[in-house]
Write a structure and sequence with these properties.
The chain is mainly α and 221 residues long. The chain has two domains: 72 residues, Orthogonal Bundle (Arc Repressor Mutant, subunit A), CATH 1.10.10.60; 127 residues, Tetracycline Repressor, domain 2 (Orthogonal Bundle). 62% of the residues lie in helices and 0% in strands. It has ten helices and no strands. Helix 4 crosses helix 6, helix 6 crosses helix 7 and helix 7 runs antiparallel to helix 10. The longest helix has 24 residues. It starts with 20 loop residues before the first helix and ends in a 5-residue tail after the last helix.
Length: 221
């Protein structure tokens, strides 16, 4: 069976409440934000839409379709910068895109669990095209161009996954317990304890510093 991006959307059915993909995806994102991937079912989605299952299945084949559509939807929240016209300003374009990408994933923590799915939606491809074309404008050619694209994308995804996981440990007692667990093993993890590995920090600044290291290492003109 082909994925949702490789099949043309169906025309609206003749009966039942008005329903279209945009409305389905918006409702799915709301459910995912509230209940996560495990909490999204086709039955709950149909109920939220006030539609019958038959009407819903006319537009999407299964839950996988819904997840792919929802994931691409949140990528649409990432603003694509206007390409800089000044030589050397490519870094600002890359930073703006990646900060927006990270912010979107943090607003929708469930998205990190779906990144392994085929990323063929128009919003994903448009932003990946911008990233790679910007790196190309900076002077990168193959194989450095593909390697840099993947390195930067993986950095954003990894940073968002790590922070989202820590943020889910919401109560102070659990966070303190984690820190004490590490502290009692100082002999095994001295550097982690010394640097406050589990301490709260300015995560935006940490992300920016790491991104600077990556961009500084690119063999761009």
């Amino acid at each position: 069976m082909t994925g949702v991006w490789l099949r043309p959307p169906r025309s609206p059915g003749r009966s039942g409440p008005p329903l279209h993909r945009d409305r389905i995806v918006a409702a799915a994102v709301e459910l995912l934000d509230r209940d996560g991937v495990a909490g999204l079912t086709m039955r709950r989605l149909a109920e939220r839409l006030g539609a019958g299952s038959t009407t819903l299945y006319w537009h999407v084949t299964n839950k996988d379709d819904v997840l792919d559509l929802a994931l691409d939807q949140i990528f649409g929240e990432v603003e694509v910068p206007e390409p800089s016209t000044t030589a050397g300003d490519w870094r600002g374009d890359v930073e703006a895109l990646l900060f927006g990408w990270r912010a979107a994933m943090l607003r929708h923590p469930w998205s990190a669990a779906l990144i392994g799915r085929p990323l063929l939606g128009p919003n994903v491809l448009t932003r990946t095209e911008f990233l790679q074309s910007t790196l190309s404008r900076a002077g990168l050619v193959e194989p450095d161009l593909s390697a840099a694209t993947h390195a930067l994308a993986n950095y954003v995804i990894g940073a968002a996954v790590t922070l989202s996981s820590w943020q889910r440990v919401a109560d102070p007692e659990s966070r303190q317990a984690a820190r004490e667990h590490l502290a009692t093993r100082r002999d095994r993890y001295p550097t982690l304890v010394e640097t406050g590995h589990l301490d709260d920090r300015d995560e935006d600044q940490t992300f920016r510093r790491g991104l600077t290291y990556l961009l500084d290492g690119l063999p761009a003109d």
